[in-house]
Amino acid sequence: MPPTSLGCNALVRAIPRARLCTTRSSRRVALFYSENDEFIDQASSFDDFLVPELASASLTVDTSCPIGTGAFSEVFIGIYDGDDVICKRFRSDVRGRDVESFYVDELESARALKTCSGVAPFIGACGLMQWLIWKNVGTMTLENALDLGVNALAMVRKTLNREESDAATLRFLAREMFEATASVHGFEFIHRDIKPANAIIDERNGKIVLCDVGACADVRTGRNMSGDEAIFDPTYGAPEQFQVVAKRNSTFPNIGGLFGRKPDEAETLEYEATGATPTELLDAFSLGVTLLRVGVPSLRSAGAIARARRDIDACGGDVETWRRNVCVPGVNDWSLVDETGVWNLIAHLTDPDPSARLSVRRALDEDYFFRQ
């Protein structure tokens, strides 16, 4: 089994310069440290919300080999009460970060989405501010499959024991991603971080489920609904969430590289939140970029899709202009997205204007391209 980035990929936090102290969660947690900075377990200092529902004595975790590591958390395989589980803990070695609020946000969202069919099945919290536990339905993510390049769709079929064409597999993945996202929206949540690394290939149930729900916005309670802070992956994030405030060593793409960018033309971008209130259309945009990566073999590496996104942004966010004027003829194989009609779907999902963007629900209701 290849290593996985299960629910751990780092996000960019974009905050307006006037609000640099904004925190991710309105719920605050008091942490207590001894003089030598060791954590002191004081249950009485925590809100009742944080009382764990699982017994630590029933959990065994192999912490010697994480299956995923991110900026704020690590993920491991474990056993709880005899069942295989996925265990996530937030790193205590991260200094100067609001790590405890990441734990609280993920716990709150995971509990609220416990009966949501589109997310990994959550079991509960174990230990005080220690572990969040999910059923182990598979450790391979769509990201892991895409790392195999031209063999990505074959790996999905092998993992799920499916026998079909690449076109059928692409349609299957698209429908599964859309239905998983729609189920989250049905709970009045906005995921805000949909991407291949957060899509688990559920071997037990033959489907795709989403993970890493800590960035979710809760429409009902207003948690994470403020536009004062945008949590996003700049490759998949919708453009209305952020703006580039600094760019170094950047030029408009010129025909000469895979996407018209010379290899030595590296760039460093800095982002700032726009203040736009999150909507379900954020997730629609992320699905569009995900489909672009899955459907075009030359874009399946993380570096390739990141470069493509920067070049698309340089074209005003218009994927049609990017494909026509920037992409080098003969380099990218568009046959799969053209044959299935996915290209048209991608173009509507990634419209830079949210008011013109296709929603997840509408795509499903109109059976937009999922016909066999």
Automatic annotation (TrEMBL):
ATP binds at residue 88. The keyword Kinase applies. Keywords: ATP-binding, Kinase, Nucleotide-binding, Transferase. Residues 61-369 form the Protein kinase domain. GO terms for molecular function: ATP binding; protein kinase activity. Signal peptide: none annotated. This is Citron Rho-interacting kinase. It comes from Ostreococcus tauri (Marine green alga).
